[in-house]
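Collaborator request, handled under Task 6.
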Amino acid sequence: MKICFATNNKNKIKEVKAALGNKMEILSLEEIGCKEELPETGDTLEHNAFQKAQYVKDHYGVDCFADDTGLEVDALEGEPGVYSGRYAGEPRSDDRNIDLLLKNLEHSSIRTARFKTVIALLIAEDKYKFEGIAEGEILRQRVGTGGFGYDPVFRPVGFSKSFAELSIEKKNEISHRGKAVRALIDFLNEI
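Structure tokens returned to the collaborator:
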């Protein structure tokens, strides 16, 4: 079975392919000929995920899934949330996003946070949603060089290492995206 993962983020594709193994062939946007930026104007992760998937389905006629992920920080009342990727503005920059997050938390002792991923699947005429959450805390400085996004400053509950210090296999085991992808895989294996 072939299915498109509606993202241009090569790191996300790499993580999902690692989680899926050989169960199905994941096509990138590039492989289906989609070069344009997908719309992402919703005010919730769910809205953005379905908006991106619907765009691909409508314009390219392929079954697909899309995700949206946000980092919700308790001391910042859930920010950056749906705006996690562009928290520090355009152009998007992981480093500038982390710098702004650490600045905004500089005087806060409350460091609890969670990553949340929503995956929207459009297959045939049906729509499905899968979610994954990883609870943790925001570190006071970057630790580790792996992963992407906020991984160097996010330490998951029960671990002494940041996401950026974990292997991709371990991260997939416990991460928000890994949990959502496993729910997606379980569903696809049943149809």
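The cover message to the collaborator said: "Residues 45-60 form the longest helix (16 residues). The chain has a mean pLDDT of 93. Please let us know whether this matches your experimental observations."
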